[in-house]
Amino acid sequence: MNLMKLVIGKPLGFCFGVKRAIDELERALGRYGEVYALGSPIHNEEEVKRLISMGLKLIEKVECLPPNAVVFIRAHGTTPEIFDMVRKKGSIVIDGTCPSVKNAQEKARLLSKEGYNVVVVGDPKHPEVQSIKGHALGEVYVVTSPKDVEAFPAKDKIGVVSQTTQEEGMLLAIVSALVPKSRELRVYNTICKATLHRQETVKKLASETEGVIVIGGHNSTNTAKLVEVAKKEGCDVLWIAKSDEIDEDWLKNKSIIGIAAGASTPDWLINDVISSLSCR
Ligand code: SF4
To answer: Known binding site: residues?
Structure first.
């Protein structure tokens, strides 16, 4: 008999941006049979394997594209230069850029056009941050913590945008650190609502349960943020990408467990974890 109670967080799994992108990609695969993606279309290995089995081809550079290929731009978006390069190859472009990412890209461009020194709060290596950076004109600074701001030169005008999956507390801390650095500071909070809702869900689960299982790719930033948020709440967290990563020792002595999932985790993986736990 299973004495463990599961509390399923809501919302859970795919956000509207990822769902929209995957739907478009599946339609393109159905229509053209073979579609190229520049980098992984979603930070979830299991879902990528499923898409590869449908005809998706992963490449890292535009130079590797064959002529007249069908190219999918992932939800994280890309830079205007890459768009141009892809079009010059005669490719058909399927643009899966999430509207919330487009908003952050447009705000970065607007700020730079209006003479602000643009600061992007986020992970400098993340493709979304690179795509936002690529839309601004001139120099762009990427900061990950208030510490990065200490060495920041004072500027007349500083404009801030955020990676869409950033934690709100971190954006606030960085903005506070920037106040003494500038006479004019304009901030666009470009954290997307899907991210905020999932972080709030995790906080609630952390307070209501003895531990939270967060399901999501180990390369997924939004999943990592959920794990971070749960830990900050003092919660015992288990981060798994799929059901065979469930740790029996972690489950021991827990009678109520919360289930959360990153915005790039497909329903079929979440359901698999829930059924596996329900059978214990
Ligand atoms: S997490 Fe937000 S910004 Fe990222 S794809 Fe989903 S909806 Fe778009």
So the answer is: 15, 43, 76, 98, 126, 164, 192, 220, 222, 264
Flag whether pLDDT at 209 surpasses 90: yes
Structure tokens, 204: 């609630």
DSSP string, 62-94: GGGPPTT-EEEEPTT---HHHHHHHHHTTPEEE
- Give the separation between CA 96 and CA 256, rounded to whole angstroms: 38
Taken in order of first residue, the domains within the chain and their CATH numbers are 5-13+193-278 (3.40.1010.20), 16-97 (3.40.50.11270), 100-187 (3.40.1010.20)
Is 128 noted as a catalytic residue in this protein?
yes
260 lines ligand 1 (CB under 6 A): no
Mutate to test the pocket of ligand 1, among 14, 15, 23 (most ligand atoms within 8 A of CB): 15
Pairing of strands 155-162, 182-187: parallel
Q: What is the pLDDT of residues 212-268, one digit of tens each?
A: 999 999 999 889 999 999 999 999 999 999 999 999 999 999 999 999 999 999 999
